[in-house]
Specification:
This protein has 199 residues and is of the alpha/beta class. Helices cover 32% and strands 21% of the residues. It contains seven helices and ten strands. GO terms for molecular function: bis(5'-nucleosyl)-tetraphosphatase (symmetrical) activity; phosphatase activity.
């Protein structure tokens, strides 16, 4: 029997673990929720966004994408030129995943380097995923108090030991993927509470 939900933690530019986690999730859950922070730190942010756009089409209606702080900072750099703040968050790895030069050899500015579908994807990220039984936010600090009977799933802060922290009514599933040398990407299933790691 399939779980109702599979939640995938912070990705941070790590393509291979992401592909494996989504592949697993699509076979074990009706709905897939990614908790954000797709970009920065890891070297494959552009490829990660390409893959997520493909997954959005292939798994339409089953997959949901939340906005992480790093994703919003990337959008801020694109929209408002806030590159300094973005670079302080590990944005150099994201920028280096996009081409610096156009076909004619001219240097491209940031907006020219990032394809419009990537910008549109970042603009359409959701702030939360909420049902009667589950809530998911990128950062637990942004979530309202859980209602009785609700289970919360959160990312944002890497857990020491790179294993998810699973309590009675919530789970913290940022396990350092793309951030820590031994980081892993966690896929947590609800209501079974099963989880796997990739990477």
């Amino acid at each position: 029997m399939m779980d109702r939900y599979a939640f995938i933690g912070d990705v941070h530019g790590a393509l291979r673990p992401l592909i494996a986690a989504v592949e697993h999730a699509q076979h074990v859950a009706e709905s897939i929720v990614l908790l954000g922070d797709y970009v920065n730190r890891g070297e494959q942010s552009r490829e990660v966004l390409d893959f997520l756009l493909q997954a959005e089409t292939r798994l339409a209606g089953r997959i949901h994408f939340l906005a992480g702080h790093h994703d919003l900072a990337f959008l801020g750099a694109l929209d408002h030129g806030r590159e300094d703040a973005f670079l302080r968050m590990g944005g150099a790895a994201t920028l280096s995943s996009y081409p610096y030069f156009g076909a004619n050899g001219t240097r491209l500015d940031l907006r020219e380097r990032v394809p419009p579908p990537h910008v549109k994807f970042l603009r359409c990220l959701e702030s939360s995923f909420v049902t009667d039984e589950c809530v998911a936010f990128h950062d637990q600090a942004d979530a309202p108090p859980l209602k009785i009977g609700q289970f919360g799933v959160f990312g944002h802060r890497p857990i020491l030991g790179n294993r998810p922290y699973i309590a009675k009514d919530f789970a913290l599933i940022d396990t350092g993927c793309g951030t820590l040398p031994d980081g892993r990407l966690t896929c947590f299933q609800w209501p079974s509470r099963d989880w796997i790691q990739t990477g």
